[in-house]
Amino acid sequence: MGRASGPPSTEAWLEALLSWVERQVLTGNTTPERIVTSAVKSLTAKGGPLDGAASLGEMVSGFLEGVNGLDSFVNTAFSHSLYCLFSQMRLLESELAEQPDLIVPRSLIILIICAKLGEWLNGLVKPSLLGHGGADRISLGYWRETVAKCGRMPIKSALEYVLTYLIVSQHFSVATRRFDGRTQRLRITVEEEGLVSLAGNYWQPSVTDDKLYSAVSLMSECGLVRFDRDDERVWVEN
Fold first, then answer.
1. Are 104 and 41 in contact (CB under 8 A)?
2. Which of the chain's ends, N or C, has fewer CB atoms near its CB within 10 Å?
3. 58 C-beta neighbours (distance < 10 Å), count
4. Is this structure's pTM higher than 0.90?
5. Between β-strands 188-191 and 194-197, what pairing exists: parallel, antiparallel or unpaired?
6. Is 183 a domain residue?
7. Does residue 105 lie within any of the structural domains?
8. What span, in angstroms and rounded, lies between the C-alpha atoms of 82 and 76?
9. Is residue 214 part of a domain?
């Protein structure tokens, strides 16, 4: 899923959603309507933590109910893996290969956490860090603003916006800009019948450690913190 750009990145989770969209196209869901319908079904299929919300804003507030601010979130993430970005990243990594139906809900959980982290970190860190990558790379700051703007949207409309503009259109834009005249970077395109796969197979993003994970690991090696890699817990000894 590539390395994260800035603290913590939305890019990796959006790339996982692109992989999911490709799978949909290859199985015959070639129109935006069918893809969005499939995404909505994946959110409600097993009654997960995102089920039941009427709007994107309700989904965010419901998922993080009782979590008030950055310190509260960190303490909650220590005791509940559902709120830990490291744990969610590992789960998404396995689901990309083994449980593709869980990619959408897992990615949205991570993106919800990213949006709230952007909100809590705003004013605490340099704006350039939150804005690193801008709209082209869906920076943390841009994603926070997007969630705020789409907060009142029904879940289906919010998913349509994310999948259409931040996944498919973004892929077209990036692939076109990076085309060198030889190597075709577009994996999907639009034809009369809808989206068509040019690659003939779905993309399996390569997973590398997030920069935050690497930073914590380095801090552990320097003796600044203790880092339990099995439980993915970090603490400072007095």
1. no
2. C
3. 15
4. no
5. antiparallel
6. yes
7. yes
8. 9
9. no
